[in-house]
Amino acid sequence: MYPMSQGEGIGCAKAMTRILEKEGVKFVFGHPGEQILPFYQALQNSNIQHILMRHEQGAAHAADGYARASGDMGVCVATAGPGALNLVMGVATAYKDSVPLLVITADVSTIQKGKNTFQDVKQSEVFKPITLESFDIKNPEDGVLKLKKAIIMLKTGKTGPIHLNIPKDILSKNMNKSILEKEVNLPELKFPNYHEAFKTLEKAKKLLIIAGTGIIWSGAVGKLRKFALENEVPVATTYPARGVLPEDHPLSLGLIGLRGTEAANHAGKNADVILAVGCRLSERTILGIGNTTLVHVNIDEKVLQGEIKINADAGEFIDHIQAVKLEGTRKWIDEIQKYSTHHHVKTDYEEVPMKPQRVIKEILEASPDATVVNDAGSHTTWVNLLRTVLEPSSLLFSGGFGPMGYGLPASVGASVALPEKNILLVVGDGGFQMTVQELAVISELKLPVLITVINNHGLGIIKQWQELFYDGPYQVALENPDFVQLAHAYHIDGQRINKPNQISGAIEKALKLKKPFLLEFLVDNKEGIPLPEVLK
Any idea what the CATH number is for the domain that residue 524 is in? Predict the structure, then answer.
């Protein structure tokens, strides 16, 4: 109960912060501006900590990293016009990977909207294609009720960003505080009859589970593990769901599809029934699936594929199938175990300049317990090929959208979410410079983030594609700054590594410091990533 008398008034911004406090929101990532100042005034007098990012894109990525690392929704805020539109990259990233974000933007006052005044733009029209909902708030009461609705949606429905766009004058207006007690109810989901799915699973001789991040967001990791282990069902995963079953477990096949393991893709091509739970079955995943009976479970009806479509929450579905009795699968397991669940990558290079795969292998081996945050580029492929993921949400990266610049601000969010955990950022020299200003946040908050910059002085994967499919490299060479000195400018210590025998020791030493640190690795700019079979 909110500690105010029934007839007392309360401002819209203050009411919103009260609701966020009641929902347990601890952090908001943002950047202030004129139109959002009423909300910031309310934040200043709340128990919520504001994390001042240096760019609104960084605010959205940090909220995204916080959500992925913590399992709770992330919250980001920005002012009108430029501030709101700077969030777009990060919101789109979260949308593609179904990450629960509450996105709050201010807008120009209602009297100015639609008149092409300073910073006036149709913000909700921009956000609609990259959010589950984008609400234009009409009055203070509407703002409170829409905020409550958004929170319930993010807790009980499909996950992704929800956007509230609130004019400055509405943020400042008062209303009766009784609106805070008003309940908002959503229509109950009508779950389907599971009978056909149960019959199909019970008849399967070669059942494969493909797990997506719906398993994580529904809190069903333990349920999935229980079902798979008790029934000896092999489990493959999509990119962001890696670790829902530890990848060193005999039933874990690892990633399926593009960049998938031999075992996962063999199972996907030869299973007689595939149970895909909490995943979209993207064009990358579908590459590992053959002609088989598909039981697809997802809370988002729009993504369902296959013969048996179940529009349901992943956790609730797994609750129902715990009673399903499967026939013996031992022969199926023996067949799959002939294939590798790990990628075989040559890494024992001793030459200088260092090979990126040697560097990344040693970085990962020296930090087995760290939460790894990835950016976008060739290093992303090496990390995916070389990391054995033992826990869900311990390898964070943007799989569906892949923006350069994701990693550094996302590592801020991950570190805020997991203050006792080592956060290891693996980032290329190109992506690092997209959001390099967020070093200021890491420094200011003294976050124990180890930043490893893989420096090949160029946009490596683009150069490789140009060499393979076009007329050769063009506009991909980077004249980089001294990254160690740049870190020093932000009051962060750093070191440059250019010899293979220095890698492991430098990583181990840096992790023990429990403070911000940057390691720059000079690597061979001629070394490309291995091509997936589909491109050969």
Answer: 3.40.50.970
Provide the residue count of the chain: 536
Which amino acid would we find at residue 273? V
Q: Give the CA distances from residue 526 to residues 458, 464, 470, in Å, rounded to whole numbers and listed in that order.
A: 10, 9, 17
Cβ-Cβ contacts under 8 Å for 522 (sequence gap 6 or more): 353, 354, 455, 496, 497, 498
Based on the domain organization, do 282 and 384 belong to the same domain? Answer: no
**What's the pLDDT band for 191 if we cut at 50, 70, 90?**
low
Q: Which of helix, strand or coil describes residue 517?
A: strand
Q: Specify the pLDDT at position 187.
A: 77
Pairing between β-strand 174-176 and β-strand 9-11 as defined by DSSP bridges: antiparallel
Give domain status of residue 350, yes or no: no
- Of the candidates 127, 182, 132, which has an alpha carbon nearest to the alpha carbon of residue 154? 132
Q: 506: helix, coil or strand?
A: helix
CA distance 394 to 458: 28
Q: For 421-465, how does the pLDDT look when each residue is reduced to its tens digit (9 = 90+)?
A: 999 999 999 999 999 999 999 999 999 999 999 999 999 999 999
Question: How far apart are the C-alpha atoms of 22 and 16, rounded to whole Å?
Answer: 10
Final residue of a domain: which of 336, 370, 404? Answer: 336
